[in-house]
Amino acid sequence: MSGVDSILNYTRSEDENYYAILGCDESATEEQINAEYKAKALQLHPDKNEGDKQAEIKFQLLKEAKEILCDPEKRSNYDKWRNSGIAISYKQWVGMKEHVHSSMHWSTLKTKDRMLPETAEGGANIHWGARRDVKWDSDASSEVVSKFRNYEI
């Protein structure tokens, strides 16, 4: 399967839902995550399931989930991936972190970077991630707006 085909046909695996693996939700605290981890780890630990490859795989996933969700930076990245809708696995996404994250600048509104004031009226919203109440000011005297409209910038 080519790279494009794998993206077009990609569906997220249950193995990528770390919250479900641990039995908690996105609002779980680190203490709750650790408590869920300990309870499940006792059931899936290789010493209790000698020779059971499925239990070993589940135990490794459990450890991975706890490791990511208990680290604030990793958890933040994981949550960004989960909510991004990007059609690649989390591990691929992390591997492409610099490239993918820099191309996701549009996914969140950055008010300090907006060219137009919130009070602008009329026209189209050119910033994909912008709030819907931001409009063009049809009578704007701003030199920047004028240059933009005349394709000078």
UniProtKB/TrEMBL annotation:
Coiled-coil residues: none
Domain of life (superkingdom): Eukaryota
Entry keyword Iron: no
InterPro entries per UniProt: DnaJ_domain, J_dom_sf, JDP1-like
Residue ranges of domain J in the record: 17-82
PROSITE patterns: DNAJ_2
Keywords: Chaperone
Protein name: J domain-containing protein
Source species: Dryococelus australis
